[in-house]
Amino acid sequence: MPDRFEQGRLAIADLACSRGGRLLFEGLDLRLDAGDLLLVRGPNGSGKTSLLHLLAGMASPSAGNVLWNESPIAEDLPAHRARLHRLTLSDGLKGALTAGENLRYATRLLNGAGDVGAALEALDLAGLAMRPVRFLSTGQRRRVALARLTTVARPLWLLDEPETGLDQANRQRLTDLIAAQRREGGIVVLVSHADLDLDPTVSLDFEP
Ligand SMILES: Nc1ncnc2c1ncn2[C@@H]1O[C@H](COP(=O)(O)OP(=O)(O)OP(=O)(O)O)[C@@H](O)[C@H]1O
After folding, report:
1. DSSP 82
2. Which residue among 22, 49, 206, 207 has the greatest number of ligand 1 atoms within 8 angstroms of its CB, and so is best to mutate?
């Protein structure tokens, strides 16, 4: 498949994060190149989501920098947000809209030219495409959120426990999506408690 986005490098330099007066981590150094997967693990409350917030430019580190192609993301946050997809437990889907409408809406919002039909197909949602999302099961709804990742190509995916609510077959679809994103030269940062069949480039284990 041809590149559909400009590949880049994500680096973390001497990064530290405090929340509520507590130091969660410090001195974190990492470099991720096109196709790399960072797997972040650790117990509840150890700072995994906080790290994703820093990588998304949604929170400021207490020290250090997040860099894209060697430039601090803080220098141009809108540009950084435009190169990433975040997937969190709150999926941001519109309950009154169907899966297809949600994907078309997201595609327009993100100024993309995505293939909604292919995205629905990839997540086995074609048969559910006409049903308002509020009538979908937890796992079905989760699949719509995953499909949204593929409609607009972006080089950086920040995924917070994306396996939540997915059965085995759909966990496999999730690992396939991640593998495809990596093959296309995307970078994936994955927070997960599950034992997904992936081959991370780097693993980061947070302490309690
Ligand atoms: N905005 C905030 N203000 C104060 N404390 C916060 C804030 N956000 C997070 N925290 C605290 O920071 C710590 C780390 O939270 P974080 O959400 O990063 O953990 P996590 O490793 O992702 O946990 P989980 O596995 O439960 O999702 C927790 O103790 C949390 O209460």
Report:
1. T
2. 49
